[in-house]
Amino acid sequence: MRSRTGGGGVSSDDIPIGRRVASWRVRRSMTQQMLADRLRRSKSWVDKVERGVRALDRYSVIQELAHVLRVDPEVLLGQQSSTPAGAPDGVDGIRAALARYDIPPAPKQTTDELRRQAGYAWLSYQHAHYGQLARVLPGLLDAAQGVRSAEMLVQAYRITSSLLVKLGEADLAWLAADRAMSAASDDPILAASATISVAQALRASNRNRPALTATLRAANRILPALSHSADHEVGGLRGDQIARQPHDQRGEGEDASWRQRPLGEWAVGGTLLVQAALAAAGCGEHRRADALIDRAAGVAASLRGYDDPHRTSFGATAVELARVLVAGQRGDAVEALRRHSTIVRREGWRRLPAQYRGAYLVDVARAYLQVGDLPGAARALVDADSVAPGEVRCRPLARTVIADVARVQPAPAGVARLATVVGLTR
């Protein structure tokens, strides 16, 4: 497959591989030193590769480069289009909006109108309409800056970061999340909700340790009334203790303010615990991950019918899905799949947003692969595509899982079609 710049233009096959490496490095917002560090090589080695002085004649090295740059090796070799079928355009527009430091003129819409626009953007995200969302985000970012509302800026940057994580732009996602943190200023709840996005972006970059640190600190701040035990890891009592403790015993004086906090703020705290658990699992701290999940479960047990103003989708079902993911990360795919088969039969599963279920099913497909159950992995991918096509067709991670399943010949039912849809077959 050849990509041309126009009539008589240069095909991707004619571009030296070093220039492709340099192009993707810049696109991923990396310096030569950053790329060298991730490859555990010298900056001089990267510079020589990009200038064509050092030849890339070993496929294993090309694979390593492709992994760090989050592209297929064939893209660096010029043998495949760099944009998979179904992937949304618009990332360049989002990047340009994030690069604008001049404050645009105040928009005509009111804060309430902008809040409705942000609500529409969140709805697009929750339904995995990523192409549609990518087109509207630059305007939303500009409008949020014009209104100069901390709440709206945090929402706009959080939505942007969430989408960029999905599209494999982890470094740009971290930038958007960091902007959300700055916009939150001294508001503890806005800062806590922004920390959720920071953690997701860091985890997407395989930076689990800083993600764990950030989420635990944020959890300490949002659950201050519960710091009466010796365990200061998440600011106090375990989640199950929170659920059981009478309201009139949850602290005195300033700590008693916890009693008046909306349930939506509890959900932010619970989500931070879930993100901390996933980061701990990514660090190999599996017992700590299980303990954090237990605490999140206690918080979830205290929530009934809140309206989720901070767009966390937190609850008992979300906690149980996190248990599956943690089990998978520690290599216990059998336990993960046992829990999975129970969860998806519950009513709470069907109430989760489409993108949440689709993303989870892609992770479950990976668990099936761990135990060698290719038909199970295929079913999970097909189910994910039926629930949230954008999750399967736009995400580089899903594309990798599809490729792993499709390598088997003949490919399991449904996966061959998905492989064609996302551009893995020609």
UniProtKB/TrEMBL annotation:
<dbReference type="Pfam" id="PF13560">
    <property type="entry name" value="HTH_31"/>
</dbReference>
<protein>
    <submittedName>
        <fullName>Helix-turn-helix domain-containing protein</fullName>
    </submittedName>
</protein>
<feature type="domain" description="HTH cro/C1-type">
    <location>
        <begin position="21"/>
        <end position="76"/>
    </location>
</feature>
<dbReference type="GO" id="GO:0003677">
    <property type="term" value="F:DNA binding"/>
</dbReference>
<dbReference type="InterPro" id="IPR010982">
    <property type="entry name" value="Lambda_DNA-bd_dom_sf"/>
</dbReference>
<dbReference type="InterPro" id="IPR001387">
    <property type="entry name" value="Cro/C1-type_HTH"/>
</dbReference>
